[in-house]
Design a protein that fits this description.
- This protein has two domains: 256 residues, 3-Layer(aba) Sandwich (Aspartate Aminotransferase, domain 2), CATH 3.40.640; 133 residues, Aspartate Aminotransferase, domain 1, CATH 3.90.1150.10.
- Helices cover 40% and strands 14% of the residues.
- The chain contains 15 helices and twelve strands.
- The chain is globular.
- It binds pyridoxal-5'-phosphate.
- Pyridoxal-5'-phosphate (PLP) binds next to helix 4, helix 5 and helix 9.
- Pyridoxal-5'-phosphate binds next to helix 4, helix 5 and helix 9.
Length: 401
Amino acid sequence: MSHPDNPLSDPARRKAQTMLVHGGTERSQHGETSEAIYFNSGFVYPTSGSAEARFKGEEPGHLYSRFSNPTVEMFQQRAALLEGAEAARGTATGMAAVTTALMAQVRAGDHVVAARALFGGCRYVVETYLPRWGVESTLVDGRNPENFARAMRPNTRVIFVETPTNPTLDLVDLRAVADITHAHGALLVVDNVFATPLWQKPLALGADLVTYSATKHMDGQGRAMGGVILGSRALIEGDIHTIIRQTGPSMSPFNAWVLLKGLETLPVRVRAMTESAEKVANFLADHPKVEVMAYPHHPSHPQYDLAMAQMERGSTLVAFSVKGGKNAAFKLADALALIAISNNLGDAKSIISHPATTTHQRFTPDELAGMGITPGLLRLSVGLEDADDLITDLSFGLDQV
Ligand SMILES: *Cc1c(COP(=O)(O)O)cnc(C)c1O
């Protein structure tokens, strides 16, 4: 209970950090402090008439956890509050979110334009699966908005981008690309994993749908997989909801609960990780054995002005290439004591990966060069360790090169 005159009785007057702790919470009759895990597949109805009414959509209530569940709903509401979106749907993984978001907009005969620099799985869906289903796709260099304008066709339904991109941390000008998209009557879908919902608000910049791998910063502790799609009520409650309902890329209630708890601490964790990433970026930028260092809010970033305009902070990832190519990159990574070799990101534990031989190994040398993935490139996801320890670890690694 609270006093009705208390200004904070109105959830709309609470600040973002507060909403992430309280938003979406629906307590059961037991009055549990933390959100309950409704780890059930089905729901019972008091009467046959009630079952009929719920299936007709005339009575509120859950039917089956493939398409709605109280714990998943709490996660969705909290994620929507953070994003400033009207509605959200949780999915089993980030790839399920991207695939569902794209599938919901296109049919055979349509065309999709995407930036060439994409997370491996996203590029696979756009380049391999969409054409198999009769949806043509064009990949462009996303750094210049003009490239999207040139690739548009009368049947283009979607532009799909991520920014900053994996793994080179190039940027796409979301406002400019949103204008191009809408001038053609298409929709802009943005994979916002690298920026995090804290530092970049694609919906405010003109995007129609935002997707996340919740596996990354939202969980942030290497436990649960998940994804989320956010946007207007019309888009989310239309085909996106129906595809999830009818094809089943659904979020598990248990994972929803883990991710819901992750959202409570997301701002605290991402802010701390970002501060450390800034320190690490400054250290790497000045190191003689580092060829190129990319961090969106470092003045040396080729799109620094755009990064400052579009992102509130530079986020938690740093990309850098060492002189000496693959051997040097391997030597550095293999000498580290704290930073783990892994391909996850956004985790409390700092992680380093060598994209050319892991996440991007299926690409030809020409394709890799086209994406800016050089043999010496390493992607570093900065975690919650003390920044000085991370710099000591990297400094030792660089000495071995
Ligand atoms: C990890 C990731 C995905 C895929 O998410 P999963 O949860 O691993 O399925 C998609 N896009 C980006 C940018 C990612 O980092």
